[in-house]
Design goal:
Blueprint: E1 3-6, E2 18-22, E3 47-49, H1 54-59, H2 72-78, E4 98-100, E5 110-111, E6 129-137, H3 143-151, E7 169-175, E8 178-184, H4 195-209, E9 213-219, H5 228-235, E10 244-249, H6 256-269, E11 274-277, H7 286-296, E12 308-310, H8 314-329, E13 339-346, E14 353-361, H9 364-371, H10 376-393, E15 397-405, H11 413-418
Parallel strand pairs: 5-12, 6-8, 6-9, 9-10, 10-11, 14-15
Antiparallel strand pairs: 1-2, 2-15, 3-4, 7-8, 13-14
């Protein structure tokens, strides 16, 4: 059984912490086959379900005996009156529930840290192309889904909620004669509510000004509108504008005749080099986007080893996985008030990896909702997070989650810089 304990009070905000320790042999048991949905090394096409909860993924397994699960419906019955409004339920109309990746096999999911201290030769000949690509767009238009499709595996977290992406996620897409370095950026906001929002928009701009070409995504279902604001946010101050591609995403949800009219409108009323319709969810049109990028990238050597998919460390993606599960399980202001940090990560040769995670919220009421009555909401969160972390790392882990209150962290410049929101783009 899980160990439930109370720790000492917080140093910044006096409040009792809730410490939740979770490991494999505990309240919930899952068959071995549950760990086969994401692999670091695969040699076959991957169709990765990006589910709203791990419960739905496990329901697809043919053998469900010995499975114990606290469903979201059961959980809501246990919560105090009013708390259930903060838990996210299933939505049959969600068009981002599944991410079907393209037919190409996944690359080895190596990280830059794996090559520390090695002398590397990145000379791939005079015809090799390489460069930086910035993905811009309003929240929830499919930037992360497109980045994952182009990469061939899931790296950026994806949910049906806007503003899921907070950091610039660096995705390195390599082939025999090219290397595209994609920056998946936060959605461009019309109004900045917190200092965090302002710092995220600075990250969008810094990604765009360092790019060799820019991709601007719009939702094909929406009424066509000028994208001047998006371009101004990203590359408005540049004298020499980089090549710009307008991507009309979610074309699978629009009738062909309507799509043709919108294509014609964007080609006529926007100052871009080309307009391409795609369905990032199903991979339709993604190869056309890659071909366009390759035609714009300069000749040059690779900046990274060809099997590297990101320069972010593994602990960064562990925190992102936990944050993704928060977005999937909770609603209203709860996901946006959470900051996830990996505070301890220990590799143990003869034992499970030890990972200690803290979730910061701004109010004690948010902490109570995040934990849930008798800790059941946090158990559900920890279950989904631990399983996906193990899928990602391909290792068994001992996950420890602690919930703390840090008042107004989204307005604290020092904390935001410490959490990585104020960093500058690294251009090699």
């Amino acid at each position: 059984m899980e160990k439930l304990a109370s720790s000492s009070t917080a140093t910044v905000v006096p409040t009792q912490h809730f410490l939740f320790q979770f490991h494999q042999h505990s309240l919930f048991f899952f068959p071995k086959t549950a760990f086969s949905t994401f692999h670091r090394n695969r040699t076959e096409p991957l169709s990765l379900p990006c589910c709203k909860s791990r419960h739905r993924r496990l329901e697809a397994l043919s053998s469900k005996q010995d499975q114990l699960w606290v469903s979201e419906e059961e959980l809501e019955l246990e919560l105090e009156e009013g708390e259930d409004s903060y838990l996210d339920g299933d939505d049959d109309d969600d068009d981002s529930s599944f991410l079907s990746l393209s037919d190409k096999p996944d690359r080895n999911m190596a990280m830059l840290d794996d090559y520390e201290g090695e002398e590397l030769d990145f000379d791939y000949g005079p015809d090799h192309r390489s460069g930086y690509v910035a993905l811009l767009g309003k929240p929830n238009v499919g930037k992360s889904t497109l980045a994952n499709q182009m990469l061939g595996q899931k790296l950026s977290i994806v949910t049906d909620k806007p503003q899921t992406t907070r950091h610039r996620i660096l995705c390195i897409c390599s082939g025999t004669d090219y290397q595209m370095i994609l920056y998946d950026t936060p959605g461009v906001l019309q109004k900045e509510m917190h200092l965090l929002d302002s710092m995220m928009m600075k990250n969008v701009r810094s990604a765009a000004v360092n790019a060799d070409c820019v991709l601007v995504l719009v939702d094909a279902r929406k009424t066509p509108e000028k994208i001047d604001g998006l371009l101004e946010e990203g590359i408005g101050d540049l004298k020499d504008k980089p090549p710009t591609l307008l991507i009309l995403n979610k074309k699978d949800l629009v009738k062909p005749g309507e799509l043709a009219k919108k294509l014609e409108w964007y080609e006529k009323f926007t100052e871009v080099d080309e307009v391409i319709p795609v369905s990032a969810k199903y991979g339709q049109g993604v190869e056309d986007v890659k071909d366009w990028i390759l035609s714009k990238l300069p000749n040059g050597p690779a900046y990274y080893p060809k099997d590297i998919v990101s320069e972010h460390p593994e602990r960064f993606f562990v925190a992102e996985i936990v944050r993704e599960k928060i977005f999937m399980q909770y609603r209203n202001e709860i996901p946006y008030a959470c900051q996830v940090n990996v505070v301890n990560y220990k590799a143990r040769p003869n034992a499970k990896e030890y990972i200690q995670v803290e979730i910061l919220v701004e109010k004690n009421t948010q902490k109570i909702i995040l934990i849930g009555r008798e800790g059941k909401a946090l158990k559900l969160l920890a279950t989904a997070a631990r399983l996906d972390v193990e899928d990602f790392l391909q290792k068994k882990v001992y996950l420890e989650i602690e919930v703390k209150v840090r008042a107004n962290w989204r307005q604290d410049e020092g904390l935001l810089n410490h959490y990585g929101y104020g960093g500058q783009i690294r251009v090699i």
